[in-house]
Amino acid sequence: MKLSAAVVALGALAQETRLGIFRALVQAGPAGMAAGELARLLDVPPPTLSFHLRDLVAAGLASATRNGRSIGYRADFASMDALMAFLSDNCCGGNPALCAPAAPKSAKSKPAKGARA
């Protein structure tokens, strides 16, 4: 991933509502979620949700698919993986065995902020 693309992706995630939306899409997996379902889950008004989803799509972190009258969104896992690889590139001077795990592995993770479990 190029530096400019990483800056755009990180900028898109550097806002509370967009980060919550992205986390909800990641938790939904490859099937993604309908926009209406996202709005209800995160308690975000549809116009606000649309505004933030446009930024996530423009940053390459999400994609949209029209299904009749509704639009479904899903996280772009390849872009997420590329961003994570960019952030951890050459971790510990190129010796990742010296680095602590990036995130603790747990059976249950906290839901995205604003999301209802």
SSE blueprint:
Elements: H1 3-13, H2 16-28, E1 33-34, H3 35-42, H4 46-58, E2 62-67, E3 70-75, H5 77-88, H6 91-94
What's this entry about, in short?
The protein is 52% helix and 12% strand.
Query: Could you tell me the number of beta strands?
Result: 3
Helix content: 40-55%
- N-C termini distance: 33 Å
Determine the structural class based on helices, strands and strand pairing: mainly alpha
Keywords:
117 residues, mainly alpha, three-stranded antiparallel sheet, elongated
Characterise the protein shown here.
By secondary structure, the protein is mainly alpha-helical. The chain is built from 6 helices and 3 strands, in the order ααβααββαα. Helix content is 52%, strand content 12%. A 3-stranded antiparallel β-sheet has the order 1-3-2. α2 (16-28) crosses α4 (46-58). The mean pLDDT is 86.
